[in-house]
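User: Here's a chain of 173 residues. Predict its fold as tokens.
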Amino acid sequence: MNANKQARDLAELGFLQQYFKEAGLGSDIIEPSETIPIGTLLVPLTKDSQQRDRYLIFNFVPSLAHEGIEHIRLLQMYTQIPVSWENKSLEKLEKLLLAINSHLAIGHYSIRGNQELYYRYVWCTPSSHLVPKEQILEITDLFIMMLDTFGGMIDSVVSGQAELSAVLAFLEQ
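Assistant: Prediction complete.
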């Protein structure tokens, strides 16, 4: 990655860190390394209903200038969803995520190849401006609201505490 681009991304993550600090949220910047090749802002969230740690990750999608995309930047918000898999019922989870994704205000839930469940949103922002404080705080609030609204529902189905059919019926109300 271009060193200037990388420096700009880290500087802007520093601004985000300050915005979150002013809003009462702690965070840490993780510098690029061999393990994580892009700068990342890690924001601890409140624990879920099962008292498991949750983190919100912010990073800028690497430059798309080589594709002719120069006037926008993409800021990714990402979190891994801690769930208690009862029997690794992937088919049930896929059906549930499809239904939930149709109700989300922003982002989507999905599953990585290693059966890691995550929630992700990519926000488009002009490359000529810093990410606006008020907008990123509101989008973060909305992201967390979507996470809190549907995360427990997902966990209850994959842990076997709730039947998929009952949760799907609830979503269709």
